[in-house]
Amino acid sequence: MTLHKTLLALAAVLAALLTPAPPAVAAGKPVELMLQWTHQAQFAGYYVAAAKGIYQAHGLDVRIIQGGPGLDPMNELANGDVDFVTAWLPTALTRRQDGLPLVNVAQVVNRSNLLLIGWKDGPGGSSRDLSGRRISIWEGDFRAPYLAWLQSEGVEPAAIHPQYYSVNLFLRKGVDACSAMYYNEYHMLYQAGVNEDELSVFFLKDYGFGFPEDGLYCTEGTLRLDREMVAAFRAASLEGWLYAARHPEEALDIVMEYVTTANVATNRSHMKWMLEKILASIVPVADSWTLGELARSDYEKTVLMMKGQNMLHNPPSYEAFTGR
Question: I need a labelling partner for 17 at 20 to 30 A (CA). Which of 26, 63, 107, 268 fits?
Answer without folding.
Answer: 26
